[in-house]
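User: Can you fold this complex?
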Amino acid sequence: MHALIAFIQDIPFDLILIQTVNGIVTGMILALVASGLTLIFGIMDVVNFAHGELFMLGAYIGVIVMAATGNFWLALVVSALVIAILGGAMQIVTLRPLIGRDPLNTILVTFGISLILQNFALWYFGPIARRMPSPIAGHFILFYLDYPWYRLVIAALSAAIIGGFWLFLKYGKYGVWIRATTQDRVMAQAMGIPVPWVLTGVFALGAGMAAASGVLFAPLVGVDHSMGLDWVLKAFIVVVVGGMGSLGGSVVAAIFISLLEAYASIWVNPSQAVIVSFVVLILTLLFRPTGLFATPK
Amino acid sequence: MSTNGNAQPLVSVEGLHTYYGKSHILDGVSLQVGHGEVVGLLGRNGVGKSTTLKTIMGLVNAAQGKILLEGRSINGVPPHKLAQMGIGYVPEDRRIFRLLTVMENLRVGLDRHGVSEDRKRQLLDKVFTFFPVLGERRGQAGGTLSGGEQQMLAIARAMMLEPKIILLDEPTEGLMPRMVSQISQIIEVLHNEGVAILLVEQNVPLTLASSQRIYIMEKGIVRHHCAAAELHVEHVVIKQYLGV
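Assistant: Here's the predicted assembly.
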């Protein structure tokens, strides 16, 4: 025990603070990706394997609009809208006919869509990553680091989008419809709620959120056809750990896992630190398979 | 049949056949409910009473037969459209939205297209006058209410749709006697408001007292039909089909 305390005391305090900021920033982007995923699962019982590709396509559309207009914020809005419409159309054509069927069908369909979208992006945009300029160029000094303001802006914007979405679910007319549909689809219909259109709207909303997170994240890493893979894998871990269908659970789990990874990066390189996420996933599945904050239906 | 002089029945069911998988549940059910009329549907457990309501509500597909609302076929119309057309449904197990507050449960039916804010307020006032306890607990989650309060909420929620008819499935099941008498009063109030009710109940005295006409089902078919005034609990028909 003494050795452990001594070991922790040896870590410089500024390094812990820097990694805490990093963890929270990454956690907020991850929470935005995961909240779209958990929304689609919680309400539709659909595990959307194409979520990462919607994230990637959103980033590409952001790049195109940015190149045409030079306005990042317009690119963010246009991309979210376009992918929301695409997501809605995708749900109507491929998932609506499968309502009530074995969940395996929807898994296979979304997996197929994911492959189609990824290969389409590779064919259409090519294998070379596109750059997306950051809308906020400034830095500030965080101890010995030049820390970009934009990273903090992403965290704040992600929090604002998730917060706005939570308010919509809590107080909006359609938010109440969505929550009613989540709890009892049959009675929601019997109360006059057009459930098939609610499901389409939810899928569109989740797709739009994936696109928004893709655009926000693009200036940090560049945009290529496989950029969605890593994020969606982590987002799935977050959704399982947070509790399938729990928005709050996803946010907490995203920040928790990102912080753990950030702290692990103090000792190992970041690609090895990813292992921490899988350890958390395995422990959750072993001791609390419904996730930490599962929403009862 | 009609209580408001309208000759055409509000709901008419003709030769309805319904299956669950290979099980033949409804075997040619026919019945009618007039405007503003309370009609009781009696029968032992498992004879298809609840399935009849679910089929009218579009929650179970009819394999054969006609369902008409004011003379217009509603076979195959999705449940949400039927709700908008004026059919309210209160299921056997209440099925309120447990995580939504009382107010949110009511809003689900209230936030419809074409309902003015004034009308919404009037409907809420009416419901809170009928069920004062719901007004007191409007911010409380539906799942935390007692069984009787949940039943009130389920009925109040259906009332938000301003229905022409409410399909009421075993509203007194599991309730204490005081609540049963309250449910009976609610049925009377709804009847006085001109709302038709198709009432499925195991409580024979309550059904006979609340209804104008009675249908008795056995093995997926209507076996007997008469005015409620012709029956009493000791009647031979009741003994034959319900074993009371």
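Chain A touches chain B at residues 173, 176-177, 179-180, 183-184, 186-196, 295-296 (CB under 8 Å). Residues 13-44 of chain A form the longest helix (32 residues).
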